[in-house]
Each structure stands twice: as C-alpha cells, then as structure tokens.
Amino acid sequence: MNLTNLTELELYFADHFDTVLFPVLAEVYQAKAEYDRAKRVCEIGLEHHPNSIDGQFILSQAELGLGNLSVAEKWMKKVLTQIPDHKNAATSLPMVQEQLDRSPTTLKTSWKRAQEVDPGNQFAKDFLSDKKTKTKPKPKKKKEKKPSVSTIPHIPKKDKSKTPLPKDLSVEGVAISPRLATMTLVNVLKGQGLYHQALEVLDILEEKGDDKKRIDGERKAIKAEL
User: CA-based angle 68:69:71, to the nearest 5?
Assistant: First the structure.
C-alpha cells in the first residue's frame, strides 16, 4: 500500500490504530485547524505509544486550539520533562501560562528556559528585561529599540522549476509519498531507527525551502547516530 495523500493516511490509521505514523496525520489536521480530529488521533496513538514526544506536543497544540489551556499546559510540561530543550514546547509554555495567570515566579522560570533554548526569542527578552527594569532603578530613559530587519526570519523562495520527487519511503512496510514529508515524519523515522530514510526526508524538506538551520541541525544529529 502507498500513502500519497491525506485520505490514504486516514484509511491506514483507521485500520492501524497502533501505527507510529499517527503524529503525521495529527499534524495534518492541526495545520487545517481541525483541532478535535488532531486531538482524537493523538489520544488514540498515545494509547499505543505513550512516549511519543511528537504525539504529546501536537496534542498540547490541539488542546490549545480548542481553548483548553490548562490541559495544553500539562502536555507541554510533560514534553519538557522528557526533553528540557524542546524548543517549541519551551517557547509555547510561558505564553500559555501568562493566559492562565500563573505566578510571576513560574513565568520567570518558564521564560528563562525559553530564552535558553531560543536566545533570539523576543517575547522572552521583553518579559525578562521588563522584570529587570522593575527591580532596578532606571538610570536613564532610553528610546525603545525597534526590532532590526535582520531579526526577521528569511523565508527562502521556492524553486519553481519542477524536479522529480524521490522514491517513496518505507515505514511499517508501507510506502509513504515524499509529498507527506514533514519534520514530524523525520522524528518518527528517527524513533524507529530509520536514519537513512530520515535523511531522505530532510533532503526533501530542504528542497521545499524549509528552515535550513533546523534541517542542518537535524541532519548533523542523525549522522552522529550512524
């Protein structure tokens, strides 16, 4: 069987609730703002793979989309308990906690962690610098600095020239189309020890114009395992 689109992935999941590919389907639903479906897929998948970091994080985002902030917070904290430097969870958690009106101490701790894993995070900088100005006397009023143009992430333009897609990838004996390539799929493949296939997906993502810095980091980490 070949998985080339969402419908086929949905049908495969319906027949294989224990598939490690559940975060890939959940992420598709999440991107389409179908949070209830993303949540359900994650809940089912996590029953079979309770330690799936991607499943836990996507579930936190689905809960967030549904307005369940305290539940979203719980799942983000669970992710960070296992992977303290999980960038997306670390930077999302304090924003959720601000909405939940958590204590200043809790917020400070969370924003510090966000800044540690993402030094360029402007929200963390603003929060922590604001706390410093409240605890220390202002020597001199300075004009508020506007974010530098250089801080705006560069989004590479996609190459309009058509290039043939690589052959399908095999997971659980199922052929997966490169069209379903995402960073979540990379993590799923890594979790299964399928490092060469994970590298292939990274190549596809690079061709699509995804975050090159992150791709290079993932590629380096995977090659270290080979």
Answer: 70
Question: Tokens 């304090």 identify what position?
Answer: 94
Rounded to 5 degrees, what are φ and ψ at 2?
-115, 135
Asked if 26 contacts 42 with a C-beta cutoff of 8 angstroms, the reply is yes
Q: Are strands 169-171 and 2-3 parallel, antiparallel or unpaired?
A: unpaired
Amino acid identity, position 122: Q
* Plot region of 24 (φ>0 → left; ψ -120 to 50 → alpha; else → beta): alpha
Q: What is the pTM of this model?
A: 0.73
Task: Report the C-alpha gap between 182 and 80 in whole angstroms.
Answer: 22
Q: Tens digit of pLDDT for each residue in 100-141?
A: 999 999 999 999 999 999 999 899 999 988 766 555 454 555
CB of 111 within 8 A of CB of 124? yes
Helices (H), the chain: 6-15, 22-31, 35-48, 53-65, 69-82, 87-99, 104-117, 122-135, 183-191, 195-208, 212-225
